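Record 1 of the preview.
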Amino acid sequence: MKKTIHYLAAISCFALSASLGAAQAHAEPMGHDEHMSGDHRAGGQMHEQMEDKHFKEMDTNGDGMVSKAEFDAAHDKYFKEMDTNGDGKLSPDEMKAGHKKMMEKGKDKRFDEADANHDGALTREEAKKMPMLSKHFDEVDTNKDGKVTREELDAAMEKMHKEHDEK
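->
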């Protein structure tokens, strides 16, 4: 039983780090270039914002502290989301699929927040809310219409991931 508890705790920590990493990576599309370019300030601020947001989500009673019960409840939620077959265990495929799903949710949420007029595309001005997208706006705007759609962003992200995997 003790091994199971330690295993679940480790998985919960992995899910938390995966969700934070996913949220940060997709909150700042094209984020892998950030470290190469030396522009750490925007990424650091984003990471800090994500930590604050995650803390507030876990602090369900709003007392400015996260109790063990609140911590466990947040991680139970991640585990349940990832355990798609409901067997109480996570397979490597479920972990990969859960990670991908969390990354997509984070990216979609940031896109929606930046899309001030809710037209499904980001202008250069709207993209300023996503510094790395703003930095690579012209590359991502493949049809050169002055807007980045979800499809263009998804294609750019897919290309970036593919290039990263090939290295």
